[in-house]
Amino acid sequence: QVQLVESGGGLVQAGDSLTLSCAVSGLSFSSYAMGWFRQAPGKEREFAAAISWSGDSTYYAGSVKGRFTISRDKAKNTVSLQMNSLKPEDTAVYYCAAGDSPSDHSGEYDYWGQGTQVTVSS
For position 28, what pLDDT does the model report? Predict the structure, then answer.
C-alpha cells in the first residue's frame, strides 16, 4: 500500500524557520512528482510547492516563492519543504502529495499524506 507520512510541524514565531518532511513508501518514489499543499481553517486547500520526478524542476506559489524550498532525497524516499521567514498567514495543515506530473491543482495528485500542523505566532 502507498503511504505518505508528513512530520516536522509545530509552533514557531514569525520570522522563524521550519522544515517539513514526507516519508514515502509503497510506490516507485523516483517516478512521481511531489507536491506540498496547505489548508488554513475556513479556506480551501491551496498549492505551495512542487518538484518534478527527476528533481530538476521546482515550482512555487507566489505567496511562498523566495521563502520556501522543496527538495527530494531519492536515497531516503523523502521530500522536504524548508520554510524560512515564516509568517502568521502560513499557519495551516500542510499535506504532501504524489502525482504523475508537478501541478498546482490538488486534483492532479494520486496520493496524499495525513497532514501536519504548522502554526506561526506573531
Answer: 81
